[in-house]
């Protein structure tokens, strides 16, 4: 349930999420690296497709998020890439909602940016083994970060959501394990076949 639908969250959370996402988008567009646009398009499409493949788990369903991987590879450019993919999913498939779009973007983009700040600079001189563990850390931490923000979004809207939010948070644990392996494998593969696609030692912090 990374896509919170309309009619769930309170007005203050919806407004706060919209403003926070707008702020991230403005900051991201000011830092936009046009060299990353083709890569951003590919990753945004991958996120778009993977999010459509949901696996039922408990009372909810889960799907790959890829926000940690996107943060590592794109830095700030991950924010508009995620925003575009989420917007298209709302418009074409009704995943999430228009009023909750800002919250959904923020819940995915902030962990991506944190992974970018903490882990992206480490990729510059990393060998295959270190690259694997950096990718694993990004994949797992981003999913858990999104889970935490999802829980906060629900609980701050209405404390009655707490029991359901706790159950939903548990569904993110197996997803974090899968995402850890996927991100680590993709990053290691890129290191071997296309090392130029990975950030170099000059990769700037968020």
Classify the secondary structure makeup into a structural class: mainly alpha
N to C succession of SSEs: HHEEHHHHH
Uncertain residue ranges = none
- Give the count of structural domains: 1
DSSP summary, beta strand count: 2
Helix fraction, binned, reads 55-70%
Gross CATH architecture: Orthogonal Bundle
Separation of termini?
27 Å
Side by side, the strands of the main sheet go 1-2
Envelope shape: globular
Q: Mean pLDDT, rounded to whole units?
A: 89
Largest pleated sheet: 2 strands, antiparallel
CATH topology: Arp2/3 complex 21 kDa subunit ARPC3
CATH class: Mainly Alpha
Binned strand content: under 5%
Write down the oligomeric state: single chain
- Number of helices in the DSSP assignment: 7
Specify Rg, calculated over alpha carbons.
Answer: 16 Å
């Amino acid at each position: 349930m990374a896509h919170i639908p309309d009619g769930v969250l309170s007005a203050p959370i919806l407004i706060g999420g919209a403003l926070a996402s707008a702020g991230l988008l403005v900051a991201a567009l000011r830092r936009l690296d046009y060299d990353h646009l083709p890569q951003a398009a590919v990753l945004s499409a991958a996120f778009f497709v993977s999010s459509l493949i949901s696996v039922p788990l408990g009372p909810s369903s889960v799907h790959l998020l890829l926000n940690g991987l996107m943060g590592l590879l794109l830095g700030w450019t991950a924010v508009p890439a995620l925003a575009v993919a989420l917007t298209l999913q709302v418009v074409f498939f009704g995943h999430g909602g228009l009023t909750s779009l800002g919250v959904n973007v923020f819940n995915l983009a902030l962990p991506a940016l944190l992974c970018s700040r903490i882990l992206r600079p480490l990729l510059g001189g990393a060998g295959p083994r270190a690259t694997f563990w950096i990718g694993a850390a990004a994949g797992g931490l981003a999913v858990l970060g999104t889970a935490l923000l999802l829980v906060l979004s629900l609980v701050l809207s209405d404390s009655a959501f707490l029991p359901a939010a706790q159950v939903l948070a548990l569904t993110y644990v197996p997803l974090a394990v899968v995402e850890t392996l996927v991100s680590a494998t993709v990053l290691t593969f890129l290191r071997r076949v296309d090392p130029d696609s990975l950030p170099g030692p000059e990769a700037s912090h968020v």
